[in-house]
């Protein structure tokens, strides 16, 4: 398989005065085109730090990250901005929708600056919300708002979709709908999808599960049988 990301000896240290906090401690990992990967581990294990470095939102204290044939750790701020705009979609735990815009308009915020976007309605259709296109965020449930956030992320047809606890604020039934939207995007668009979670049940959906602990990769599993979102016991 083709490696989309190759990270070697990633270290991330945060300093507060004389205190050093190690978020990552020499992480080596490869992510491949079209796969669905779960980053699993407790709070403070380094999941979000790793995701942010891969997505160009943060830089490592040491080590290297390559995206295809590009060395991200040598990129300027402007180059990282362009990398995120062209290649990466982000989905966060909190939806970050603009309250004064409808669902369609929230998606169009991204399609207006993307190089090869799908239409906002097509993106909303992928997450099953085309009938709520003219609703404002306050008129949508939490799960619907998260699906709008997913539609916004996939509307520019990114090569990579990075999701930080996308079901963390949702009940199990709503979480299933959100996970179905993510797997549909992965399968229909071939988007490499990385999902952070502390919920071990979600790992059953992945091609690979990367377990993190104390800033290190503890192990990498490949589930023998992948489950659909509706089959998961939360």
Describe this structure in words.
The protein starts with a strand and ends in a 13-residue tail after the last strand. The model has no long low-confidence stretch (mean pLDDT 91). The protein has a six-stranded mixed sheet, sandwiched between helices. The chain has a four-stranded antiparallel sheet with strand order 2-1-4-5, with helices on one face. The chain has a single domain, classed as 3-Layer(aba) Sandwich (Rossmann fold). The chain contains six helices and ten strands. The chain has 234 residues and is α/β, with parallel strands linked by helices. Strand 4 (62-67) and strand 5 (70-71) form a beta hairpin.
Entry keywords:
single chain; 234 residues; alpha/beta; Rossmann fold; six-stranded mixed sheet; 6 helices; 10 strands; globular
Topology record:
Elements: E1 3-16, E2 19-32, E3 36-40, H1 47-54, E4 62-67, E5 70-71, H2 77-87, E6 88-91, H3 103-111, H4 120-126, H5 142-154, E7 160-164, H6 172-189, E8 192-197, E9 208-213, E10 216-221
Parallel strand pairs: 3-8, 3-9, 6-7, 7-8
Antiparallel strand pairs: 1-2, 1-4, 4-5, 9-10
Q: Please write the CATH class name.
A: Alpha Beta
Radius of gyration: 17 Å
What is the H/E order? EEEHEEHEHHHEHEEE
State the fourth-level CATH superfamily: P-loop containing nucleotide triphosphate hydrolases
Seen as an oligomer or otherwise, the chain set is single chain
| Main sheet attributes: strand count, strand direction, barrel closure | 6 strands, mixed
Strand content: 25-35%
Name given to the CATH architecture: 3-Layer(aba) Sandwich
CATH topology: Rossmann fold
Question: Which residues sit in consecutive blocks of at least 5 with pLDDT less than 50?
Answer: none
